[in-house]
Amino acid sequence: MKKEINGKTKIIGVIGKNLENSLSPLIHNQIILKHSLNFCYLPFQVAETNLGKAIQGIKALNIRGVNITFPYKEKVIEFLDDLEESARRIGAVNTIVNNKGILIGYNTDVIGFKKSLQEDGKFAIKGEKAVILGAGGAARGVIYALLEEGIEEIYIFNRTPEKAEKIKHDFSSFFPKSSIYVFSLEEENLKNKIERVHLIVNTTSLGMPPQIDKTPLPDEKLFHPDLLVYDLIYHPTKTLFLRQAKRAGAKIINGLPMLVYQGIESFYLWTGFKPEGKEALEMIKQNA
Ligand code: ATR
User: Which atom of ligand 1 is nearest to the CA of 185?
Assistant: First the structure.
């Protein structure tokens, strides 16, 4: 927040189910402080039954905008007035902008994921193959980002394969040069698909409190040293999934760079001010 909150302070924030460990308030308020902006970023913990009322409250309270996080990225869409074109295609929203009482949904996860993969993971997506674990709102942003950058094949593994089938159905026509294959999480072909790829991304909530001792890939023998293993979770800093991948010699990356990069894109949409990504990431690493 700015040093002093006053009558002109604009409110921004995050809506999610479990925000105790969220670093978004720290990220945004550090940026606000550093650049003396008259904004304040707040956590709004909302139960699913209140999601619609909370979204209406953005208008009623003249809140400038919010991030949307787990598990509401898809569910929130029905309460919005409009969607930016890519958010419509993706079918998931992580940012809402309140434009004079009109609520517009955006997805800045896509750019955040791309930037983290390229800059922090040093991974060139074009022509690659990837295994994606999960098929929720976060997975939609990740998969869309990979397709936009020309990935050749995507293997989606999800507990509920129908949700992954829906992603395949929704995205395939936009990216006819890439192929999407769907499997259930228990399938034996997890092994043979992981052997063929250089990138695995965990988009499930397994590993996040309260499921902290869980991993979407219980057999750690499946990891190999030619992998970049990416977990969207940033708390804990190293999930069991990442610890096992590291032990197997794989390169690992957690969700913090993506969180910071998607956050600064959202911040720009609300404030018109774009902080520098690397600088913001370093600031958070020192203060988190
Ligand atoms: P987000 O917006 O963060 O993506 P979400 O849409 O609720 O959140 O998606 C959560 C993902 O974690 C889904 O892929 C979910 O699997 P289902 O589609 O089968 O629900 C996955 N997930 C959550 N808990 C899980 C568990 N105990 N075992 C396996 N997958 C799980």
Answer: 29
